[in-house]
Amino acid sequence: MRVPPRPSRNGRLRSVFPAVVAAGLAVSVLSAPAAAAQEPAPAECPASLEDSATCYTGQSADGAYYAIAVPEKWNGSLVVHAHGGPDLGEESDPERSIGDLERWSVMVEQGYAWAGSSYRRGGCGTRMAAADTESLRRLFVKQFHKPKRTYIHGQSWGGNVAAKTIEIYGSEKHGPYDGALLTNGVLGGGSRGYDYRVDLRVVYQYYCRNHPRASEAQYPLWMGLRAGSTMTTTGLRARLQECTGFSSPPEERTALQQRNLDDILAVTKIPERTLESHLRFATFTFRDIVHNRLGGRNPFSNKGVVYSGSHDDAALNAGVERFSGDPTAVRDLSYDSDITGRVSIPVLTLHAIDDPTAFVEHEAAYRAGLRGAKRDKHLVQTFTDEHEHSGLSTSEYANSISSLDAWVRSGKKPTPASIASSCPTFDSSYGTGCFYKPAFTPAPYATRVNPRPDGLDWPALSAHQEKMWSRLPSVGIAP
To answer: Residue 451's CB: how many other CB atoms inside 10 A?
Structure first.
């Protein structure tokens, strides 16, 4: 067993990172790797763990920064974390894994070693992020030793990454992962997981006419932004405010602003409190997908979608911009991020019913995928009466990893009710509440997100389909 030395308590966690070397990257070109992989270097732990764990940081050969924590009273098992986002940018963020360790310190407090990658770059690329996650797991095994059990935890878009990781690197018998915990996961897959933001992009432009303005260079809305645009998040927010007055009290909005806001929210079913963040995704993340990952090809469609809920649906459907995706782009985005349902290990999900970012109906899509692959016996889904996306109750996270571990060790599948009943034990320590709703079942995905008549055939993508994809040239999002 090769264990790096323990760090001194007075070091600075971020000081172990070298300066990030800027590199201009063209479409479909791999990010520049580090000269050599860095072995885990001792580092200061977050304050909550400084007296109970030993922490390490480093950078992989592919350029992905990472952080690792091993508790003093290690139970012998490992949690590999897949973070959400995706963050945008062409370089790995050395601070991301540090922040994730602090945010998910509850896993270490519960006795698990923890390892999280910042991924080799920002931007979309589910398979890339899965490869970086698996690479970190292998590094942990090499530098420490093989854990008794290994769990993967994915949060938000990281839920998609984790779900894809266990499909790619798992096996019919037993792969490197023993179980998966997916929390507030984006589980609809790339080919339809962005559809409500496609709808927002075109509906917004129909009412607001300022993204782009008539006086600006025009481009198809599926691009998110034209190549070379210098728009910032601040500029986008100003345009949204101009059109809807969303950040002003209702009494300060003009009648037109209020009607625009009401129509946009009613048609897209996006909560008002996350309208701006969804529009950012439909702008800057779309730009990353189209220009940086797909070489300018369009993976999105709204052809045949019937929009409803506005003050004049006929005018909206007649005037909204329409487009169909390039079949090769749809194929590549689907190959990169869609779920086949090929799961052979216990998977536990935790999702806020009122999640305003990754709607709870994503869980219905995920279950349908596993059911279509006849693998839903491996799935238990839990839901809570919470209203946030980025963070749920710490007591519930502790309870979830414990419930998953008990399932794996005993082979006895839990129920939503049994998981809910075990939460108060953890809440006696954390005091953040237990909000489970064991009887809740999410409605089908198509009840929340307009289905695409020309979309892929769901509920499941078969393993045969994935094998066929793998034989095609230039398939997938650029690493």
So the answer is: 14
